Amino acid sequence: MALLEAKGMVGGYGGMDILNGVDLAVDAHEVVVIIGANGAGKSTAMKALFGLVALRAGQVSLGGKDITNAAPNDLVALGMGFVPQERNVFRTMTVRENLEMGAFLKPAAQTRVMEQVFGLFPVLKEKADQPAGELSGGQRQMVAVGRALMTEPKLLMLDEPTAGLSPLMMEQIFERIVAINKEGIGILLVEQNARQALAVAHRGYVLATGRNRFTGTAEALLGNPEIGQSFLGG
Amino acid sequence: MEALADFVNLYFLPGVAVGCIYALGAVGISLIFAILRFAHFAHGDVMTFGAYVAYSLVASLGWSVYLALPIAIIAAAFLGVAVDRLAYKPFRKSPGIIVVIASFGVMLVVRSLIQLIWGVDVLNYETGIRKPIELFGGFRIAQKHIIIILVSVIIAAGLHWFLSRSRMGKAMRAMSDDADLARISGIDTERVVRWTWLIGGGLAAAAGVFAGINSKLHPSVGWDLLLPLFAAAILGGIGKPYGAIVGGLAIGIAQEVATYPWIADMPLVPPAYKNAVAFFVMVCMLIWRPTGLFRGRVL
Amino acid sequence: MDQQFLGLFMYALSLATMFGIYGVLCLGLNLQWGFAGLFNAGIAGFFAVGAYTTAILTSPESPHYLGGFGWPPILAMPVAMLLSGLIAWPVGRICLGLKGDYLAMATIGISEIIRLVLKNEDWLANGTMGISTVPRPFESLGQPWGNVAFLAFVLVVMLIVYVALERAWISPWGRTMRAIRDNELAAAAIGKDVVRFRLEAFVIGAAVMGLGGALSAMYFKFIGASATEPLLTTFLVWVMLIIGGSGNNRGALLGAGLVWFIWSGTELLTNRLPAEWITRSSYMRALLIGVLLIVVLQRFAKGILPERPPRRIDR
User: Is the peptide bond between C144 and the residue preceding it cis, with omega within 30 degrees of 0?
Assistant: First the structure.
């Protein structure tokens, strides 16, 4: 049984459906990526998993437990971590304080997990006492990922973690994501940089107009010429 | 030298004491704005409530008002939480300005309850005049002013420790920085809101009791301070508690010092118009710098 | 006419006249809040400016304060409106580009300043003593017909304001106003001068409140510092509008009538209480009104007569 399973998700903002029936699944050991054109509903699908977009129909379960439309608070407690694309750090707080906020639900493990995060992103240790708003885009992304890791989640969801980053920084982030996955954390990614993302992923979903278009292993999707033309930039 | 001593004794030091009262009230207004994004118009009446709780202890048990202060703080802190639960909680997802209307209702309710319970007479915590304490070189300070200033400093230090060191204080800063992200991070935002009211209400009670000590106690003692409190919050940048402390001190000192006979023998601003000084500062800030003196940091 | 009937009749007249005055105030607030979404916490201030202006202009000459100038009341009313609007203008100019809370705080400020000036400047309006020689139109007709005629006058004024606001509501101006209220960014994006439209609604609304003040000064034939207390103006008018239904002029009038009826009706009830409770009765009424406001806001936020989009005009 998959760690996270979503079936037939229908929903959107203010009465307008963006998702018209999306299925998704992530296993504990997997890196799964959602790709698709702008407006296909990638980010909306991820937010719906995390209770940030209300679902009119469909079902989401985590480890067999129904979590459809559950509050983000409770999902964090159940072992989901979410890194939004924008506004994903507390800009006025230091890096250390950002990480502490991630550990709000699990203060006992705070010191230990923070050392792990510093091990994963050594630059954050150097900048621990700087306000997160003063960091570069890539470092902010690291703070955001680190913050989400502080609750020791079973599943980490990242909404376009490499948007606006330099190719070098993008590579670093992807490499760290693989490292996190090696620790036994399931990863769900939404990505514009589809080719690079598929290169580190096990499986992928291609969404179009709020529906599943293609599903398969990363290799299969990379090898499919139709996908190559429409979604991977040739 | 004597003129300087007079200025300090009669205008500046009383101004600092008034400034402390404003600071304690404005910090609560700013904290509530930072977390819940609305200007709390009933804050003055929470102050009044605290002041009357202290009065009850003074009048019925013969306590010193300073002994009654902690109890008043606790009572008003719980009033804040109760008011939030009953009146404001249903509006969490509404625009802030709707909550402001609700706070009008709270204002009516709290004030009329005070009038029903304690009546409308002007009251005093203690009668008689205490001799001011001689400092040096002709400088003097009233005992009540020393206590008001000292206790305010202690409270401000405690608040600073809370916001910069404690987990809940940091969560409060996180929520004021970005409430959505706080929720996503797993912070229990309703708990943060409760703490905000505990602190805001408690500080309001301290401000109310001090206002009663400084002059007299009557049912609109808090309402009368609402204008300078808002001016102080705006001066410091609304939503920034540290700014509110500076803003409160500045407005308090400005109001008292403005009544000094700077030109000729007449007070520059007649004492009856002290609140006009606060309004003037508020208007200037709104014209030139509505974000307050301190840019950048939200909390 | 027998005495008891006359007493009842006079009471009904006073109820109806107060309804008319509050109706005007409520319509003014509806223009600001219901149409434009502007929060005014200083109704008392604009009301007082209108009331005092009328008192100074119409009362006979007095050595104790400015004037009085002995003007006919009908001429004083436009001046009262003009002055209230003039005071609202700079406040609006400063605050209307900012978040709504700033306007709320600034209006508390301006009404406090107005209160201070009226209380302390004896030369202007006799300070705390107030002005007690304000003439009321038609009072020469005696009781009760003079009161009936004045009631008719108040109701006509209220109706004129109502019709004017109804027309404004369906006009392009009203439509723009609602567009700005509901989505400021979108309205600005299609080139509407958001601040100017808001300023117009705020100033005109304040002028209407000044008109309410003028009517009140005439009705009571007296105006004193207590008139600047916010309870009977700012708070009560807000409660009326929210309960009646903001964004709906009929709702504003219904709220004015209903809440005033409750307010003065409960006074009749509480007057039957034992003597030691009578002094406290007004606080119990204020408590009731406060609870009513919170409950209505939580449960029936749209009021009794909710806002409706205006009917389409078929070509």
Answer: yes
pLDDT confidence of A1, banded at 50, 70, 90? low
Between chains, do B167 and A82 touch, taking CB under 8 Å as contact?
A: no
- Are B234 and C102 within 8 A, CB to CB? yes
Nearest CA in chain A to B175: A90
% residues pLDDT > 90 (chain C): 57
Q: How far apart are CA C235 and CA C89, in angstroms?
A: 22
Complex confidence, ipTM = 0.91
Q: Which of C94, C113, C289 shows the shortest C-beta gap to B286?
A: C94
* Chain C adjacent subunits, 3+ CB pairs under 8 A: B
Residues near C298 by Cβ (< 8 Å), separated by ≥ 6?
A: B90, B91, B102
Q: Is the pLDDT of residue B297 over 60?
A: no
Mean pLDDT to the nearest integer, B285-296: 82
Residues of A in Cβ contact (< 8 Å) with B175:
none
Question: Are the Cβ atoms of A100 and B170 closer than 8 angstroms?
Answer: yes
Contact present, B and A (at least 3 Cβ pairs less than 8 Å): yes
Task: Please name which of B198, B258, B192, B201 lies closest in space to residue B228, comparing C-alpha atoms.
Answer: B258
Q: What ranges in C36-144 are assigned the alpha helix state H?
A: 43-58, 73-95, 100-120, 122-125
Q: What is the mean pLDDT of residues B14-18?
A: 96
Query: Which DSSP state fits C310?
Result: P
Domain ranges of chain C: 21-229
Q: What are the backbone angles phi and psi of residue B230, rounded to the nearest 5°?
A: -65, -40
Cα–chain-centroid distance for residue A214? 20
| pTM, entire model | 0.92
Nearest alpha carbon to residue B100 among C306, C36, C41, C205:
C41
- Whether C309 shows a pLDDT value over 80: the answer reads no
* Cα–Cα distance, C197 to C106 (Å, whole number): 19
